[in-house]
């Protein structure tokens, strides 16, 4: 029997939210990329291409930490606990001896970051949290500080950050979204906890004290420490709204010169826009300092109408905008919500920024940025670089043309098509919604000009999209005037099949709908229950199968 071999399709973009980027201090071409349910991508060429990785117990990834001596040893925090790789990030294994038992229904010990003692690398600390602010049922041990003195083979809990009961080291704590230290003695650590602000430990992570004097509110999202002066640090503040409808306090950057005892604004040149909508008020969720030139910093306003990356060359005393969303050439329409920022350890000119659906890299101090998850190969066509976490729900070849194929995915994935044998991909088209998820596609003619797509996810009906020009433009079919549910009604669409450009069947809300006028009007021809996917006997046939809650159904005439 011939061996079946699988190769990547190189669909564009990463398909979800990025949560971490790390450049190896041993080799600037060795880069790791993590995401929200995306797993980990490994690059050995500085981010030009990505390889798959293996062994992760779960795919909600937090921060990476490279070993100070061994180039191929890397730690990463995950919602399942700390994971270790000894081959540069290609293979991972969970290292949680001493942690509470795992559970089938919740995360017991999420880890945001592992720190390594530079003088004694077998001495590690792991910090309980999630910068992505994942939620979990049960009682995850947020805020826990775990210590290992044998290179991660065993752990014990030594403290709690933002403990509800400070006298009890086992007390529930706060979500540690960031932690940092530049202390070669491995005794002083700074943690950011939204709602609790900045907390400092001077005894190796055992006890923690709040240091928030001068901060306008406590919604701290990131922290960065000067690489050569552990008393000098910066924090990024999100915005804060006490009650719905009240003005929102904008976020910003604040700086301390005395280990967090006093904070002063460091936001000259940054947006400080305030509204009554937190999504439209300035907020800052990441701050990075260049290891080789600590006066150079990067941050970003992640408000929906902000989307601006800022650079400082004077230690945060002033900032200037270096990138806005309209300047970004990438495959996806997501805004420039840079919640992850990372400098290369070797050069302040090289940096990565990431947020939703793409990762940008500069080699020239921010003058030019490229998307390292996809590259443009033609005017409207893209090819991925190997790291994809698209939640793809369907893939179909055009039965009339094997070089034409469509993939459908959740969220912004919606609809991508290839007409060159899977070498490049084109997203949607005019009229295709940017968000909402695609489920199935029907090829209604021999040319691929006429297609129908079911749209919607999480039980919502986003409409049936129709194109008659091969995907250049789309009309959204929905509403009572067409015999369909209204857009955003609770009626999950799934399968769709067309015997011709005029005869189309679709399952919506568990019912089978039929149109004999190309989708202009529809009627329910079977109530189901729970009808889902449709499989024709042959292309163009009116005979097909439909799966449902009570089994598989068959029609010989489509009625």
Unreliable stretches: none
Biggest pleated sheet: 4 strands, antiparallel
What is the CATH fold-level name of the domain at 390-555? Methylamine Dehydrogenase, Chain H
The count of helical stretches stands at: 0
Strand content: 35-45%
Helix content: under 10%
Strand order across the biggest sheet? 4-5-6-7
CATH class of the domain at 390-555: Mainly Beta
Kindly report the average pLDDT value: 95
The CATH superfamily name of the domain at 390-555 is YVTN repeat-like/Quinoprotein amine dehydrogenase
- CA-CA gap between termini: 42 Å
Taken from the alpha-carbon principal axes, the silhouette is elongated
Protein described:
The protein has 559 residues and is an all-beta fold. Among the domains are: 53-176, no CATH class; 390-555, YVTN repeat-like/Quinoprotein amine dehydrogenase (Methylamine Dehydrogenase, Chain H). It is elongated and about 75 Å long. It starts with 17 loop residues before the first strand and ends with a strand. The mean pLDDT is 95.
Topology (SSEs and partners):
Blueprint: E1 18-23, E2 31-35, E3 39-43, E4 61-66, E5 74-78, E6 81-85, E7 93-94, E8 113-116, E9 124-127, E10 144-148, E11 156-160, E12 178-180, E13 189-193, E14 197-201, E15 209-210, E16 220-225, E17 233-237, E18 252-256, E19 264-265, E20 284-289, E21 297-301, E22 308-312, E23 320-324, E24 340-344, E25 347-354, E26 359-362, E27 370-371, E28 374-376, E29 382-384, E30 392-398, E31 401-409, E32 414-418, E33 426-427, E34 438-443, E35 451-455, E36 463-467, E37 475-477, E38 493-498, E39 504-508, E40 511-515, E41 523-526, E42 534-536, E43 544-548, E44 551-555
Antiparallel strand pairs: 1-2, 2-3, 4-5, 5-6, 6-7, 8-9, 9-10, 10-11, 12-13, 13-14, 14-15, 16-17, 17-18, 18-19, 20-21, 21-22, 22-23, 24-25, 25-26, 26-27, 28-29, 30-31, 31-32, 32-33, 34-35, 35-36, 36-37, 38-39, 39-40, 40-41, 42-43, 43-44
């Amino acid at each position: 029997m011939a061996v079946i071999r699988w190769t990547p399709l190189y669909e564009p973009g990463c398909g979800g939210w990025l949560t971490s980027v790390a450049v190896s201090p041993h080799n600037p071409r060795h880069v790791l990329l993590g995401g929200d349910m995306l797993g980990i991508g490994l690059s050995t060429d500085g981010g030009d291409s990505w390889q798959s990785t293996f062994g992760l117990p779960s795919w909600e990834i937090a921060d990476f930490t490279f070993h100070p001596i061994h180039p191929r040893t890397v730690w990463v925090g995950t919602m399942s606990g700390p994971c270790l790789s000894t081959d540069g990030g290609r293979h991972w294994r969970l290292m949680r001896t001493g942690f509470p038992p795992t559970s089938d229904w919740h995360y017991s010990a999420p880890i945001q970051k592992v720190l390594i003692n530079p003088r004694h690398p077998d001495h590690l600390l792991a910090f309980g949290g999630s910068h992505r602010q994942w939620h979990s049922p049960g009682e995850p041990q947020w805020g826990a500080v775990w210590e290992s003195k044998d290179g991660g083979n065993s752990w014990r809990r030594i403290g709690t950050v933002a403990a509800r009961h400070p006298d009890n080291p086992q007390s529930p704590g706060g979500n540690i979204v960031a932690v940092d230290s530049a202390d070669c003695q491995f005794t002083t650590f700074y943690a950011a906890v939204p709602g609790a602000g900045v907390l400092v430990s001077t005894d190796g992570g055992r006890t923690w004290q709040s240091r928030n004097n001068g901060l306008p509110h406590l919604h701290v999202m990131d922290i960065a420490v000067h690489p050569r002066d552990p008393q000098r640090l910066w924090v990024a503040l999100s915005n804060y709204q006490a009650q719905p409808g009240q003005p929102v306090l904008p976020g910003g950057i604040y700086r301390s010169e005395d280990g967090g005892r006093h904070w002063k604004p460091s936001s000259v040149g940054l947006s400080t826009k305030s509204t009554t909508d937190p999504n439209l008020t300035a907020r800052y969720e990441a701050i990075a300092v260049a290891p080789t030139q600590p006066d150079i910093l990067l941050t970003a306003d992640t408000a929906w109408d902000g989307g601006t990356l800022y650079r400082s060359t004077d230690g945060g005393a002033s900032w200037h905008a270096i990138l806005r969303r309209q300047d970004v050439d990438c495959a996806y329409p997501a805004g420039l919500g840079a919640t992850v920022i990372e400098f290369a350890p070797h050069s302040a000119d090289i940096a990565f920024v990431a947020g939703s659906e793409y990762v940008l890299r500069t080699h020239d101090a921010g003058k030019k940025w490229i998307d390292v998850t996809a590259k443009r190969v033609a005017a409207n066509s893209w090819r991925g670089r190997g790291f994809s976490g698209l939640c793809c729900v369907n893939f179909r070849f055009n039965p009339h043309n094997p070089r034409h194929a469509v993939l459908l995915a959740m969220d912004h994935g919606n609809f991508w098509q290839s007409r060159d044998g899977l070498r490049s991909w084109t997203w949607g088209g005019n009229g295709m919604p940017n968000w909402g998820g695609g489920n199935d596609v029907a090829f209604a003619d021999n040319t691929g000009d006429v297609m129908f797509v079911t749209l919607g996810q999480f039980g919502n009906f986003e409409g049936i999209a129709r194109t008659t020009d091969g995907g250049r433009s789309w009309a959204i079919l929905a509403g009572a005037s067409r015999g369909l549910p209204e857009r955003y009604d609770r009626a999950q669409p799934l399968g769709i099949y067309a015997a011709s450009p005029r005869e189309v069947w679709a399952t919506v809300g568990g019912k089978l709908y039929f149109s004999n006028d190309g989708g202009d009007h529809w009627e329910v021809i079977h109530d189901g229950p729970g009808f889902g996917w449709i499989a024709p006997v042959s292309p163009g046939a009116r005979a097909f199968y439909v799966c449902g809650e009570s089994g598989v159904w068959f029609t010989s005439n489509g009625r």
